Amino acid sequence: MKLTRQLTGRSTEVASAAPMPITFSGLGRIDTAGALLLLELSGQSADNLAHLARDAGRPELAELVALVTPRGIAEHAPADVLWRWNIGSGLEVVGRRVMAGLSDVFENLAFYGELMAATGRLMRRPLHLRWIPTLSQIDRCGVDALPIIATANLFVGATIGFLGASLLAQFGASVFAVELVGVSVLREFAVLISAIILSGRSASSFAAEIGAMKMNQELDAMRVMGVDPFDSLVLPRFIGLLAVMPFLVLIAMIAGLAGGMLVLWPTLDLSPQFFLTRIVDNVGIKHFWLGLVKAPVMAVVVATIGCRHGFAAGDDVNQLGRHVTSAVVQALFAILTLDAVFALIFMELGL
After folding, report:
1. Domain check: are 130 and 197 in the same one?
2. Is 93 part of a structural domain of the chain?
3. Which of the ends of the chain has fewer CB neighbours closer than 10 A, N or C?
């Protein structure tokens, strides 16, 4: 039998009529590529070579040999990579993704139930709240997020004003662009844009912080010292975000209305006094409350998903990165889904 390998750009031919005797006395550290080359050139089976490596006192080499076999690759490669190249398993891929999504939904609901139980315990003993971490989260999630939330909603309101002025002018109803800006900003875009920004800032931050603590075994150390990680890490983040979310939405509403007003003033020659008068008379307070009532729900979603993925992160950086990404994606999906549910509920109630 002849084995041919490409080494350093040249073809090297190795002839072996029978399995070669193997000794490991002069072998230093090798990687998986070296283990694969050794397996091919030796003429031994993977089991025999691994057995010889263990007898020679090289268990790490036996693990490498087992890893480079087709069975070892199948066991250690990510499942999505393996199924992606199997043409006949498309339905199985879909089924696995659906089951994984349903599993995430159930885990989020279970974590939400645990969060509500912890909140109930805190309501019976409010003095046990960790005020300094809670105030720190209010500062980080609220004060630090104000500039980007206000700026984003300012431009959203300005964009709606531009579109309303240009489209409604075709029907001679340009003045109704004021109502368009008011209803869309107060009812939908202020809370939606704010929640989306917080899902990118806070959900990822919560998942990364708690996940890093789990990687460094700080959560285990807290449990050993008798400190509940849920009460000390999750509740301050949850209460801080829940407390600051309505104020962020209020600032977003003001910024969105200001953006629409600044656009309609020079475009349609509508003064700020006229703009505010039409907002008060024709839009009213109803849409303000309909938008504001969504704020606590969005805060609960962002905090729950972010903290849950932090606790679910594994012990390596790769898993931490995947869970941080999943936290942001799931928070965005949940926000958009809940906004659609709120729209259907308000429509059925005639609001």
Report:
1. yes
2. no
3. N
Same domain, 71 and 190: no
CA-based radius of gyration for the chain: 30
Do 196 and 344 sit in the same domain of this protein?
yes
CB 41 within 8 A of CB 14: yes
Residue 86 within any structural domain of the chain = no
CB 200 within 8 A of CB 269: no
On whether both 40 and 135 belong to a single domain, the answer is: no
Question: pLDDT tens track of the chain, all 351 residues?
Answer: 333 344 344 444 444 445 556 666 666 677 767 677 766 766 666 677 776 777 667 777 777 777 666 554 444 455 554 445 455 466 676 777 778 778 777 887 888 888 888 888 888 887 777 888 888 888 888 888 889 999 999 999 999 988 888 888 888 788 888 888 889 999 889 999 999 999 888 888 888 888 888 888 888 888 888 888 888 888 888 888 888 999 999 999 999 999 989 988 888 888 888 888 888 888 878 888 998 999 999 998 898 888 888 888 877 788 888 888 888 988 898 899 999 999 899 888 887
- C-alpha closest to that of 254 among 286, 292, 300: 292
Q: What are the contacts of 164-167 at 24+ separation with CB within 8 A? A: 164/260, 164/264, 165/263, 165/264, 165/267, 165/268
Q: Is residue 99 part of a domain?
A: no
Contact by Cβ (8 Å): 304, 205: no
Q: For residue 153, give its domain range.
A: 107-348
Same domain, 65 and 118: no
- Helices 190-198 and 317-348 pack at an angle, to 10 degrees, of 170
CA dist 81 and 325 (Å) reads 18
Which residue, 55, 77, 99, sits at the end of a domain? 77
Question: Which of 184, 226, 183, 205 has its CA nearest to residue 310?
Answer: 205
> Could you tell me if 147 and 278 lie in one domain?
yes
pTM of the model: 0.68
